[in-house]
Amino acid sequence: DSGVTQTPKHLITATGQRVTLRCSPRSGDLSVYWYQQSLDQGLQFLIQYYNGEERAKGNILERFSAQQFPDLHSELNLSSLELGDSALYFCASSVWGGGNEQFFGPGTRLTVL
Amino acid sequence: KNEVEQSPQNLTAQEGEFITINCSYSVGISALHWLQQHPGGGIVSLFMLSSGKKKHGRLIATINIQEKHSSLHITASHPRDSAVYICAVRANTGNQFYFGTGTSLTVIP
């Protein structure tokens, strides 16, 4: 158990819908990272937050947004969902914002029908 | 063009064999990570390197910054090492992360 929690574990929804994925980092970790893992694209970095501020941005679509709240939990919002958004979404956390070991959550499996 | 290339893509070994997985990257980096993903999907960070060599149990990771290359070695491999091993780098401009496509390792008893 990494200490990083993600909810829900599984999510099934329809095209065009909006969903919110939640991540609670390990106690004491200030940084949260979001990743997408699909069968055809592998792991891709979406976005990083550090202590509530956006720190780095990757291949995050405009239909996706994220934030980190004062209690350091983070949410990833996915809207206007398409079939291709079906993937595993991982959250990870680390102590600082720079080069630290990351601890991964169990992931949320999103299926868009 | 992939910023991170891993080889081999697939690897089958007999229990006890010494295993090497290679990772080459094309961008300037601040850190390189080796990750392990088990069949159930969970990801574990094995190493984070910015220079030199690190060892943890039967696992050794090395990095050569000049050659933009890293290797992950597993000594005395065991069936429980069967997993996908993923190399990832953090670029030193923009702080983006790039991932290799992974090496699927199967260790046969």
Describe the protein's architecture and organization.
The complex is a heterodimer of chains A (113) and B (109). Chain A is mostly beta strands and 113 residues long. Chain A is built from no helices and eleven strands. In chain A, strands 2, 4, 5, 6, 9, 10 and 11 form a seven-stranded mixed sheet that branches. Chain A has a four-stranded antiparallel sheet with strand order 1-3-8-7, with no helix packed on it. In chain A, strand 7 and strand 8 (74-78) form a beta hairpin. The mean pLDDT of chain A is 94. With 109 residues, chain B is an all-beta fold. Chain B is built from no helices and eleven strands. Chain B has strands at residues 4-7, 10-14, 19-25, 29-37, 43-49, 52-56, 59-64, 69-74, 83-91, 97-99, 103-108. In chain B, strands 2, 4, 5, 9, 10 and 11 form a six-stranded mixed sheet that branches. In chain B, strands 1-3-8-7-6 form a five-stranded antiparallel sheet, with no helix packed on it. Chain B is globular. The model of chain B has no long low-confidence stretch (mean pLDDT 95).
What does this entry show, briefly?
Chain A is mostly beta strands. Chain A has strands at 5-7, 10-13, 19-24, 31-38, 42-50, 53-57, 64-68, 74-78, 87-94, 103-104, 108-112. Helix content of chain B is 0%, strand content 61%.
Q: Give the % helix of chain B.
A: under 10%
**Rg calculated over all Cα atoms of chain A:** 13 Å
Strand content of chain A: over 45%
Total strands of chain A:
11
Which consecutive residue ranges of chain A, at least 5 long each, have pLDDT under 50?
Answer: none
Q: How many strand elements of chain B?
A: 11
Distance between the termini of chain A: 31 Å
Measured distance between first and last alpha carbons of chain B: 37 Å
With helices defined by DSSP (H or I, 4 residues minimum), what is the helix count of chain A?
A: 0
Q: What structural category characterises the helix and strand content of chain B?
A: mainly beta
Largest sheet of chain A: 7 strands, mixed
In round numbers, the mean pLDDT of chain B is 95
Backbone CA Rg of chain B: 13 Å
What fraction, in percent, of the residue positions of chain A are helical?
under 10%
Order of helices and strands of chain A: EEEEEEEEEEE
